[in-house]
Amino acid sequence: MNKHKKPGNIVSKVVIYIALIVLAISIIVPVAWVFMASFKQNSEFIGKGTNPWALPKKWFVQNYQVAFQDAQMGEFLFNTILVTVLALVLILVIALPAAYVLSRFKFRGNKILNIIFMAGLFINVNYIVVPIFLMLSDWDTALGFQFFLDNRFILALIYASCHLPFTIYLLSSYFKTLPRGFEEAAYIDGCSYFKTMVKIMIPMAKPSIITVLLFNFLTFWNEYIIAYTLMDEHGTLAMGLKNLMAVERTATNYGIMYAGLVIVMLPVLIFYICVQKRLTEGMTLGGLKG
Predict the structure, then answer these.
(1) Any stretches that span the bilayer, and where are they (predicted)?
(2) How far apart are CA 206 and CA 209, in angstroms?
(3) Nearest to 215 by CA among 166, 263, 285
(4) Residues 228, 72: contact at Cβ < 8 Å?
(5) Which long-range contacts (CB under 8 A, 24 or more apart) does 68-73 make?
(6) What is the dihedral of CA 241, 244, 245, 248, to 10 degrees?
(7) Under 8 Å between Cβ of 240 and 247
(8) Positive/negative CA dihedral, 164, 169, 174, 176
(9) For residue 5, what pLDDT is reported?
(10) Which whole-number Å values give the CA distances from 221 to 46, 60, 87, in the listed order?
(11) Which sign, positive or negative, has the C-alpha torsion 38, 43, 48, 54?
């Protein structure tokens, strides 16, 4: 029977490998082209005989200098890093204990809380961003000065709050797969509930934590609608990129525009490369199980 199945298995593997290669090429080629184009001068994009696939005649790093200085991409980058880090810290500090308690302990109201968090998965924050803006604006009016709007910490708090249901759902699913023997052994050794969570359970859940960190990082880093609505002077990188692309496209400065795209993409690629192995473990071991 194995001999009869072998040709079919080979064909299916070949089809899968071809599909994966095509997918990899479709992702790698545009990214590589943007990196290459970010070092080109404007004359290499416009005019007869220009080849968009050709390597830069000279690596024109001034595109990045203009993007950082004139377009203030450095300030937007700092704001985005600060907001993203604050949001990730807030979401872990809140979601880890909540997910652990909801998944490992039975108490009155446990099911209701789980239902509430599950319902939160179906709320799209983009639909309620205007009410959030009006609420924060009213609070600023009551204070007599601007505090809640254009505040990086408030933006990070809103990001974390909006993604708590998703994070708690993933972490709870992973905590449920861990054997209870580790907790029982810790209790016998005299560990408290809090110490058991911090010293035993959270380290074991590291693959799932990396998974939610990556998903939330990508969401916070690329978010535009909430930041555009609530922020002004302390705008994020998505807002800066939007302004840069609008200005440079009008002025036909394509090299500077692509340099801005690289500034946005590079931290994401670096972070993904650093956590790729842990991300695969988290998805394999149950981080995405229902």
Answers:
(1) 14-35, 76-100, 112-133, 153-171, 209-231, 251-275
(2) 5
(3) 166
(4) no
(5) 68/263, 71/240, 71/243, 71/244, 71/247, 71/248, 71/256, 71/260, 72/240, 73/237, 73/240, 73/241, 73/244, 73/260, 73/263
(6) -160
(7) no
(8) positive
(9) 54
(10) 32, 27, 10
(11) negative
Q: Using one digit for the tens of pLDDT, what is the confidence trace for 82-141?
A: 999 999 999 999 999 999 999 888 888 888 888 888 888 888 888 889 999 999 999 999
**Looking at the domain 62-285, which fold is it?**
MetI-like fold (1.10.3720)
The identity of residue 278, as a single letter, is R
Q: Provide the whole-model pTM.
A: 0.84
User: How many residues does the structure list for the chain?
Assistant: 290
Nearest Cα to Cα of residue 202 among 272, 98, 273: 98
CA 67 to chain centre: 23
Q: Interhelix angle for 152-162 vs 73-104, to 10°?
A: 40
Tokens of 104: 């490992």
